[in-house]
From TrEMBL:
Domain APO: 172-257, 342-427
InterPro entries documented for this protein: APO_dom (IPR023342)
Pfam families reported for this sequence: APO_RNA-bind
Organism: Quercus lobata (Valley oak)
Organismal lineage: Eukaryota, Viridiplantae, Streptophyta, Embryophyta, Tracheophyta
Gene name of the encoded protein: LOC115977261
Official protein name in the record: APO domain-containing protein
GO molecular function: RNA binding
Amino acid sequence: MDCGSLNFTHSAMVLLCGKGKFLTPKVGPLNASFQKNAEHLRLSRHRGLGSLDSFQHSSIKIKLPLKYRSPSLNLCRSYPLVIRSELPQNADFPRYYSKKEKKPFPVPIVELRRAARERVKKMKGQPKRPAPPPKNGLLVKRLIPVAYDVFNARITLINNLKKLLKVVRVHACSGCNEIHVGPVGHPFRSCRGSNAGFRKGLHVWTNATVDDIVWEVEAYHLYDRLGKRIPHQERFSIPRIPAVVELCIQAGVNIPEFPTKRRRKPIIRTGRKEFIDADESELPDPVPEVPETPLLTEIPDSDIVAPSDEVSIAWLAEETIQAWEKMRGGASRLMKKYLVRVCGYCPEVHVGPSGHKAQNCGAHKHQQRNGQHGWQAAVLNDLIPPRYVWHVPDVNGPPLQRELRNFYGQAPAVVEICTQAGAVVPDEYKSTMRLDVGIPSDLREAELVV
């Protein structure tokens, strides 16, 4: 027998034996095929194991023996059935850092020093190479379209969220910065705002806006990305714009309201931190380039029209979540070339090779640092905070219960809004949303959970 195929159903255990005999509960069909020289049994998903989220998003491996007897060789061989899944079934929520804790470094200091020593040892005795863009003052041309996509994705996200807020209820606490997506606010006592002790941690829910959902971190706009650091005395004379917009400007987006210096020749280094601009007088006058992708603009609140039917709401939710993923994915690509700094003690973000000198850090023990920021490399969540909220399993069902808090999951506010509007949940958020966890109906049933 050169090749054979079996049609069996899925369950927690599948038993296969030789001569085509198999025993399994009848739950749903799953196609399996094997070859004579094959190492593993190949599965094609239909409605079998692929329909169970616990198999799709679990990190376990299931190995089952498969035996068949060849009439010609009269030989019995055993092939393991391996089911793999890289995504975890459930994941812990992002850790909450108090104001007294310092953010961890993305890469530990020990590893940074070790990599620096290896880099110096490797470059010893070799001629010095010219700095690549953007360190030499030029733009990375292949990332210019990415910068325009990130800028337009941010505008699309804001415009779509304004429309979705007309049909999806979002609550914001007036005492703290926590928000909740659902018909009613959650009953958890997690408020850390003013007078929270008198309310025993209960939230005071009000209507939320787009600014509560998309928490935009502001940064100083730099006319020259490689220029001198902003001193403390000029902190009020330099405009502040969203950090994502500043990153797009430095990556090649031209906005007339925020001019920036564009070099056409690499800079000439005269020292470690000193340089001079190359002579560009012999070059022809620059011609303003028309971008291939036009820049979008925000829609005023008075012109917002809510979607009319469920189909348009679901389509709008899908477009919104795609804009969210495009903005975060493009910003992550830009951050690999254009450096972004964040303070280890407060949410201050600076887009540039080195942080500014403004002494406006008011975090824990800022007096010991004279108000100066502790700059370190930023991660994507520092630039675009996801704003995690509690996931509501059933919008039309009963509200969240305080006693069953450990069974509920969390998701970014944008993802939760789009999910309740009818969008498909991306795979990367399913683990924290705990979609595979069975929620007890009451406290008595929850106490029986092992």
